[in-house]
Automatic annotation (TrEMBL):
Lineage top rank: taxon: Eukaryota
Protein name in UniProt: Uncharacterized protein
Originating species: Vespula vulgaris
Length: 78
């Protein structure tokens, strides 16, 4: 095994290069995680919008069913 303090490449040691590589990997992983969270957030927002639209459609259908069942044209759901 090489002594990291003996081998030098210019002004920095192998330990410095190794440390920089590790830090770089952490930064890349952090960016990837942040982008994954952003994508998941967008998908979740889209799902919530779709759920709200579906709920409104169900309420409208229920209102139509109630109107037809009772023969009343102005049944309004709260």
């Amino acid at each position: 095994m090489l002594d990291v303090n003996v081998k030098r490449i210019g002004p920095c040691t192998w330990a410095d290069i190794s440390r920089a590589n590790i830090i770089g990997k952490f930064i890349k992983a952090k960016r990837k995680a942040e982008s994954t969270v952003a994508i998941a957030s967008k998908i979740w927002t889209r799902v919530q919008k779709d759920n709200a639209k579906n709920a409104i459609k169900k309420l409208e259908r229920t209102e139509l069913i109630l109107n037809g069942a009772f023969g009343v044209s102005d049944v309004v759901l709260p």
